[in-house]
Amino acid sequence: MPCVLTDAMISIAAKVHYGTSLSNVDWLHGSAESLLTLTNLFIVLGLRGALRKLEEEDTKDSISESSQDSKEKSSV
Residue 34 in contact with residue 26, Cβ under 8 Å? Predict the structure, then answer.
């Protein structure tokens, strides 16, 4: 969300200072695209970390369940 606001401010600055749209001011346009790319990267890294954490928890749960099942079978 902050990146979208930053891009909007950059777009307004391009219009006010240069009298044209953001896409016509190369260095501002490149900066805005870089911010969007970084935002996408952080989203992907956060999602990747969350998925790995869930996978680890599932693995731990399945190991503990299988050890409990084997204990129950051996005690019978």
Answer: no
Tally of structural domains, the chain:
1
Mean pLDDT by 10 residues, the chain (76 residues): 77 90 88 89 95 88 68 60
Burial class of residue 32, CB neighbours in 10 A (0-12, 13-18, 19+): buried
Residue 45 resides in a domain: yes
Residue 5 lies in a domain: yes
pTM of the model: 0.62
Burial of 14 (0-12, 13-18, 19+ CB in 10 A): buried
Dist CA 5 CA 17 (whole Å): 18
**How far is Cα of residue 62 from the mean position of the Cα atoms in its chain?**
28
Q: Is residue 22 within 8 Å of residue 32, measured between CB atoms?
A: yes
